[in-house]
Design brief:
By secondary structure, this protein is an alpha/beta fold. The protein has helices at about 10-25, 35-45, 65-75, 90-95, 110-120, 130-140, 150, 160-170, 175-180, 185-200, 205-215, and strands spanning about 5-10, 30-35, 50-55, 80-85, 100-105, 125.
Length: about 230
Amino acid sequence: MTARVVVADDQSVVREGIVMLLGLLPGIEVVGSARDGEEAVALVAERAPDVVLMDLRMPRCDGVEATRRIRKEYPNTQVVVLTTFAEDESLFPALQAGARGYLTKDAGGDEIVRAIHAVLSGEAGFSPAVQRRLLERVTTAPAPAGPPAAEQQLPDGLTPREAEVLVLIAEGLSNPEIARKLHISQATVKSHINNLFAKTGVRDRAQAVRYAYVRGLAHPPGTSFT
């Protein structure tokens, strides 16, 4: 079976190199390439590929958000992340968004082909490094008795990360400062902000700060509690 693939990466040299490599591999047909997540989603809608090889740190719409949209709107297209680092901050959000494979950019052609065909067969396509990280997470994390109380009490369907970003907005941090504090990209910060704005119905940062105060997620400066 020939797998029809779209490549999404914001760096032209990297993107063109991946396209060239895939063109030399058996059972792979590249049907398009995208410079960011918005283009990736549009290409999926236009060309209905079997798999998207998705970078994560891209402008406009990052890879996690693009993956979430593709898996929701075009469930017949699978996503394999192809990024630089297998770090928790990108690995687990990508998997939660619906990615079925996760490779780092030092993967060889054979490894990429295996991952693509694995996800098309309903399996997971992970690099050995990612498999080890997942195993470490499973074996070291304590089994919770249930959702943390903080998660249960979050209003309007906010995720813990979105609530964390909201609190930092209320503290007056800018997007770059939030990105540095949480060790995530500015594109990911923007994605979280867009999501929490949509869920809470606020239109700007000032309304977001007021929302955080009213809902008890943050407290005005100078307020003390006993």
